[in-house]
Structure prediction request, 284 residues.
Amino acid sequence: MKAVIIGAMGQLGMDVSDIFEKNGHEVVRLDIEDVDISDMDSLVPVLSDIKTDILINTAAFHNVEKCESDPYTSFNVNAIGARNLAMLSNDLKFYLIHISTDYVFDGKKQQPYIETDRPVPLNVYANTKLSGELFIEAIAKNALVLRSSGLYGANPCKAKGGMNFVQLMLKLAGEGKTIKVVDNEVLTPTYTVEIARQILKLSKHRLTGICHGTAEGACSWYEFAKTIFEINGINADLHIAAPGEFPVKVARPTYSVLENKLLKDHGLNVYKHWEEGLREYLGK
Prediction:
């Protein structure tokens, strides 16, 4: 099988590319220097020449604050880009897996969201990612939208300064600094290698529609930080941030836990509990 990975130099894209190659598949790695998903004239000649069986789109404009200040670029990449790939998946006959986000929900449910729950996006980023989902649903004949949550991995995340939450916590602890983390936002931290494994499995079964894919369980950002230090045996100066200590610049859901219902219904869920994924990432 030939697989094209768009966003291949990113935090998730690198792991997806690596796992497909390790399993004997031909992989074509594309990044922003190679193709602009928001520009059909950029996409058509590249993808027409490659003639792929499957395309996994991990590319996104996902810095939430920058999306809020630049909605034009956010919509072009996250929505028009998804639309372009949906159209080409029909024309060039490839299976499309498009990565989306838990942020399409507002968090008011306070219980794990399933695929049929109604999205209520709170910010520009979430709105544009939801728009991308809707374009794919309306256009593509053979595509899957995979929503995930709280991504972290070994490869640097360029949009977030190259450092994930785990690395930041360990850096601050190593510097002996007092660390304050919010405990009023609940999510599921998900190791990108686990998502890559799930995508590999999905590539063989070709589910379509919308699918949730995150690690099992849930925690607050404070609980996540506390567990990072416990696993590493670090006695960090960690505290719960006081209400309002970190003013919110952009509205975000305070609860964005996803339930992998569709994966489980089809017997395809490969995710472990988020703490097991964290231990694997840390080599513990």
Summary: The two ends are 34 Å apart (CA to CA). DSSP finds ten helices and twelve strands in the chain. The CA atoms of residues 105 and 120 lie 5 Å apart. The chain has a mean pLDDT of 92.
